[in-house]
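Figure 6 in text form: structure in, sequence out.
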């Protein structure tokens, strides 16, 4: 993971055989990357569908705590502790995430 200016964070995204690295302003939600990458998919954007579920490889401490809606969804779906919803979390430092599935599916 490379260094970014102080007010920016680096987000490494892995999906299938694709790895992308993006920078974004610290404190924004992952949805801010929507125009930069198609690796993260969104649908409801309200923690109802789970299509934006991802696994945190590193930097869990750099994400906002789960919202009530996200926590309820993750609990109901019996998700692992390192799984989050991209539509619900903000990024405050560098992270590396993995998204399951092939982006062409």
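Output sequence:
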């Amino acid at each position: 993971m490379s260094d970014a200016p102080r007010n920016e964070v680096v987000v490494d995204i892995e999906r299938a055989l694709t790895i992308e690295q993006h920078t974004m302003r610290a404190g924004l939600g992952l949805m801010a990357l929507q125009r930069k990458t198609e690796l993260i998919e969104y649908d409801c954007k309200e923690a109802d569908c789970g299509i934006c579920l991802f696994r945190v490889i590193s930097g869990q401490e750099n994400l906002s705590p789960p919202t009530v809606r996200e926590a309820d969804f993750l609990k109901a779906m019996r998700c692992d502790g390192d799984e989050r919803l991209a539509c619900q979390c903000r990024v405050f430092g560098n992270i590396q995430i993995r998204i399951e599935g092939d982006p062409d599916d």
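Caption detail: Helices lie at 68-76.
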